[in-house]
Design brief:
A six-stranded parallel beta sheet has the order 7-6-5-8-9-10, with helices on both faces. A four-stranded parallel beta sheet has the order 1-2-3-4, sandwiched between helices. It is built from twelve helices and ten strands. It starts with a helix and ends with a helix. Helix content is 47%, strand content 11%. The protein has helices spanning 2-18, 33-43, 72-101, 109-118, 160-167, 185-199, 227-230, 243-251, 264-273, 287-299, 301-315, 319-331, and strands at 26-28, 47-51, 123-125, 142-144, 173-175, 203-206, 219-222, 236-239, 256-260, 280-281. Helix 1 crosses helix 3 and helix 2 packs across helix 3. The chain is an alpha/beta fold and 332 residues long.
Length: 332
């Protein structure tokens, strides 16, 4: 908490220094919103929340920072309010420093948050209703608009090496842990390759922060590859359950095996949807456990059917278009 408080204090001052006085609109993430609201007040700049995780309390599910298991409707809401109060405490010092630097009167993070809630300030949530339907107990102004995808140029293509590997046999499994497992590349690579071979599957390993790397007729190592181009051509995705990757799998109609450290929420949503196996905790990951999960995903068509159903729902959403309309309303 102390380290995080120091970070957000520095972030607030940097935010204020970076913001141009001619700014038309502030788009605020869950991390920057508790700071950006005060900048919006000081400058009169409109602001919209742009979140990739649900942050408002609801009876439908517990807060993303808590357990993935439901605590019941009352317990979920109570835990959600507690999570917000913990965040308020985290930002108290940063907000006090920021408001002094902006010549604003004192105001606590909790008071500002309540002011935003009472005014029904808009917050756009960039994830699919296929994964998280909009809770009925959310206040007006909180909208789930669909996923926001990285831009991929129409001329972008997979490399010749990757195309040759895809064409050389059955659909492979993609394995990538994103920013997880830094410094554990050798262990993670050994687990991944042994699991693939135990399950009788080919694999594509994405280097990522772990530094995965393996060679062989049945395994290919790649660097950054657009999910939109690769995922529709794989049999399954093993990933760290980050918001973007968790959405990219079902969007491509592909089932997943989530390996989680700090992001159990999305892993739980995928499993509840039926498009993924139960999450494997990162600390418990073994070649045997991963091979077993991959075998189930490969053999049981229910996972693929659930992913395809989700893909059909997600294809009808236009997260970017909804965001553009909201920006036009706020800046107009």
């Amino acid at each position: 908490m102390r380290t995080a408080a120091e970070f957000v204090t520095e972030l607030g001052q940097g935010f204020a220094a970076a913001m141009d006085r001619g700014t038309d609109l502030l788009l605020l993430s869950t991390t920057t919103a508790p700071l950006g609201r005060h900048l919006a007040e000081a400058t009169g700049t409109p602001a919209i929340g742009a979140y990739v995780v649900p942050a408002a309390p609801t009876g439908d599910f517990p807060p993303v920072v808590a357990t993935a298991r439901s605590l019941g409707r009352l317990g979920n809401r109570t835990a959600g309010r507690l999570a917000l109060r913990m965040a308020d405490r985290l930002y108290t010092g940063a907000v006090a420093d920021l408001r002094r630097s902006l010549d604003l009167p004192p105001l606590t993070p909790r008071a500002m948050r309540r002011r935003q809630e009472q005014a029904n300030r808009p917050v756009l949530h960039g994830f699919s209703t296929a994964l998280v339907p909009r809770p009925a107990d959310w206040r007006p102004g909180l909208e789930v608009v669909g996923a926001w995808w990285p831009y991929v140029d129409e001329s972008r293509r997979l490399t010749a090496e990757l195309e040759d590997f895809l064409a050389a046999g059955a659909r492979p499994v993609f394995i990538g842990f994103g920013s997880m497992a830094a410094g554990q590349g050798e262990r993670m690579c050994d687990i991944a390759v042994r699991a693939l071979r135990r399950a009788g599957l080919r694999g594509i390993l994405q280097t990522g922060s772990a530094g995965l790397a393996a060679d062989g007729d049945d395994v290919l190592t790649v660097g950054d590859v657009p999910h939109a181009l690769l995922f529709p051509r794989v049999a399954a995705v093993v990933h760290h359950a980050g918001a973007g990757t968790a959405a990219a799998g079902p969007s491509a109609g592909v089932p997943a095996v989530p390996v989680t450290a700090d992001q159990p929420f999305w892993a739980g949503r995928l499993a509840a949807l039926g498009a993924a196996t139960d999450p494997i905790p990162f600390r418990s990951l073994t070649a045997e456990a991963l091979a077993d999960a991959l075998g189930r995903v490969a053999r049981q068509q229910s996972y693929s059917r659930a992913a395809v159903t989700a893909a059909q729902l997600m294809a009808a959403e236009d997260g970017a278009g909804a965001a553009v309309k909201a920006v036009e309303r706020s800046a107009g």
